[in-house]
C-alpha cells in the first residue's frame, strides 16, 4: 500500500483546516443572522390590546406574521445554501493553492533528494561526491540542511581523494625498493661463486619479489582507473581477445576462442588488462585437464565479453566478494594478490559498463562483461 506524499499530506491538512474554519465562520454567521431576524419578525403586527375587533383585523395580522416567518426561513435557507456553495468553491481554490504552495515549499527538498539519488546511483561510491546542492534562497531550515549536506559531501570527497593519493603514492614509493631487491638477488644468484643453496634461495626471493611487484602494480592500476578515463579510442574487443589468448600459456588446459566484432570506445591498455586478468583468473583457478572459453559479440547496444572456465565449485553467495580487493574464495587462491577481479570491475566501471559472474554447473565461473557499444560514425583509431 503506497503512502501519501508529504506534498499531498500538507495539502490535505491545509485544505482541511480551511474547510473547518469556513464551516465555523458559516455557523457563526448563521447564528448571528438568525438572532437578528427572530426579534423583529416575532413582534410584527399590532399588540393584542390594539387589534381591531373583527375577522378582517385578525386575518391581516396573521398574514403578516406568516409572511414574516416565510421570509425568515427563506433567508436562513438561502444563507446556508449559498454559504455552502461559496465555501465549497473557495475550499477547492484553497486546496489547489495549497497544492501549489506545498510544491514550491518542498522544491528544495526535491533538489536535495535528486542530488542524493544521483550520488547513490553512481557506479562507484566516490564517483559522484564532487556534486553539490548549492541551494539558493533565504537562510531557513531547508537551506541549512542543504548546506550541511554539501559540507558532508566535501569532507567525504576529500577523504576519498586522500585515500586514492595515499594508495598511489605508497605503491609508487614501494616499487623502487622492490626493483632494487630484485637486482641484488639476481646479482647474487649469477655470481660464479654462488652455491646451489644461494641460487635456490634466490629463486624463492625472486618469486616473492615478483608477487609483491604484481601487488604494487595492481594497486597503481586500481588507483588509476578510479580517477576515470579521459582519452578514449576505438577498440575492438575481438582483436584484444585474440591478442591476449594468443600469447597466454595455458598448459594442461584447452583454450578456445569465439570472437565476433565488439567495438567500444575506451583505453586500449586498460581493456587489454581487463581481458588478460579474466583469462589469467580462468587459468589460475581451474582443474587439471579443464578448459576455458573466451567469446566476444554484441547484444543490443552493448559489446559483450564472456569468459567461461571449469574449476572448483564456487558458492553463489561468495561471488560478490570476489570482486572486492584482497578477497579470495577458497584456499587454492592464496597464491594470488586478490586484485585481479577488483581491477576488472574498476576498469569496467570506468568505461561505463557492467561485469557479472555466475557459478557454472559442474564448477567454475561464467564472467560476463558488457560495455557501451561504439558508434559506427565515431573516429576510428584502431588498436
Oligomeric organization of the protein chains: single chain
Distance between the termini: 55 Å
Roughly what is the average pLDDT, rounded to an integer? 80
Shape category: elongated
* Estimated share of beta-strand residues: 5-15%
Strand order of the largest sheet: 2-4-5-7-6
Largest sheet: 5 strands, mixed
Number of spatially distinct domains:
3
- As for the CATH topology of the largest domain, it is Heat Shock Protein 90
Q: How many strand units?
A: 7
Rg estimate, integer Å: 41 Å
Discrete helix count: 8
Sequence of secondary-structure elements: HHHHEHEEHEEHHEE
CATH architecture of the largest domain: 2-Layer Sandwich
Helix content: 55-70%
Q: Class by helix and strand content?
A: alpha+beta
Give the CATH superfamily of the largest domain: Histidine kinase-like ATPase, C-terminal domain
How does this structure look, described?
The protein has helices at 6-42, 55-120, 141-189, 196-225, 237-246, 268-284, 319-322, 340-350, and strands spanning 233-236, 254-259, 263-266, 291-299, 302-309, 354-359, 365-372. The protein is α+β, with helices and mostly antiparallel strands and 383 residues long. It folds into three domains: 6-120, no CATH class; 142-225, Signal transduction histidine kinase, dimerisation/phosphotransfer (DHp) domain (Helix Hairpins); 233-372, Heat Shock Protein 90. A five-stranded mixed sheet has the order 2-4-5-7-6, covered by helices on one side. A two-stranded antiparallel sheet has the order 1-3. The chain is elongated, with a radius of gyration of 41 Å.
Amino acid at each position: 500500500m503506497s503512502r501519501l506524499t508529504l506534498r499531498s499530506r500538507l495539502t490535505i491538512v491545509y485544505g482541511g483546516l480551511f474547510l473547518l474554519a469556513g464551516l465555523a465562520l458559516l455557523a457563526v454567521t448563521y447564528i448571528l443572522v438568525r438572532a437578528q431576524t427572530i426579534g423583529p419578525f416575532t413582534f410584527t403586527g399590532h399588540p393584542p390590546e390594539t387589534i381591531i375587533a373583527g375577522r378582517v383585523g385578525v386575518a391581516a395580522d396573521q398574514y403578516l406574521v406568516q409572511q414574516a416567518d416565510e421570509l425568515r426561513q427563506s433567508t436562513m435557507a438561502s444563507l446556508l445554501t449559498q454559504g455552502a456553495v461559496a465555501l465549497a468553491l473557495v475550499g477547492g481554490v484553497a486546496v489547489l493553492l495549497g497544492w501549489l504552495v506545498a510544491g514550491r515549499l518542498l522544491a528544495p527538498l526535491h533538489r536535495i533528494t535528486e542530488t542524493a539519488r544521483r550520488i547513490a546511483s553512481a557506479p562507484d561510491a566516490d564517483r559522484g561526491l564532487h556534486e553539490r546542492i548549492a541551494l539558493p534562497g533565504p537562510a531557513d531550515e531547508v537551506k541549512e540542511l542543504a548546506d550541511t549536506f554539501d559540507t558532508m559531501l566535501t569532507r567525504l570527497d576529500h577523504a576519498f581523494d586522500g585515500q586514492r593519493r595515499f594508495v598511489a603514492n605508497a605503491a609508487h614509493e614501494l616499487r623502487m625498493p622492490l626493483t632494487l631487491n630484485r637486482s641484488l638477488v639476481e646479482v647474487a644468484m649469477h655470481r660464479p661463486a654462488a652455491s646451489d643453496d644461494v641460487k635456490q634461495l634466490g629463486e624463492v626471493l625472486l618469486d616473492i619479489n615478483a608477487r609483491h611487484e604484481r601487488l604494487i602494480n595492481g594497486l597503481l592500476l586500481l588507483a588509476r582507473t578510479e580517477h576515470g578515463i579521459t582519452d578514449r579510442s576505438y577498440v575492438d574487443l575481438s582483436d584484444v581477445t585474440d591478442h591476449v589468448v594468443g600469447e597466454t600459456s595455458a598448459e594442461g588446459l584447452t583454450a578456445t576462442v569465439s570472437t565476433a566484432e565488439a567495438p567500444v570506445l575506451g583505453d586500449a591498455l586498460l581493456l587489454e588488462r581487463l581481458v588478460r586478468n579474466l583469462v589469467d583468473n580462468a587459468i589460475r583457478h581451474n582443474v587439471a585437464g579443464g578448459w576455458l572459453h573466451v567469446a566476444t559479440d554484441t547484444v543490443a547496444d552493448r559489446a559483450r565479453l564472456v569468459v567461461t572456465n571449469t574449476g572448483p565449485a564456487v558458492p553463489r553467495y561468495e561471488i560478490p566478494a570476489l570482486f572486492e580487493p584482497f578477497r579470495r574464495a577458497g584456499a587454492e587462491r592464496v597464491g594470488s594478490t586478490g586484485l585481479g577481479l577488483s581491477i576488472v570491475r574498476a576498469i569496467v566501471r570506468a568505461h561505463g559498463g557492467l561485469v557479472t559472474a555466475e557459478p557454472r554447473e559442474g564448477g567454475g565461473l561464467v564472467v560476463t562483461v558488457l560495455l557501451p557499444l561504439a558508434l559506427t560514425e565515431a573516429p576510428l583509431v584502431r588498436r
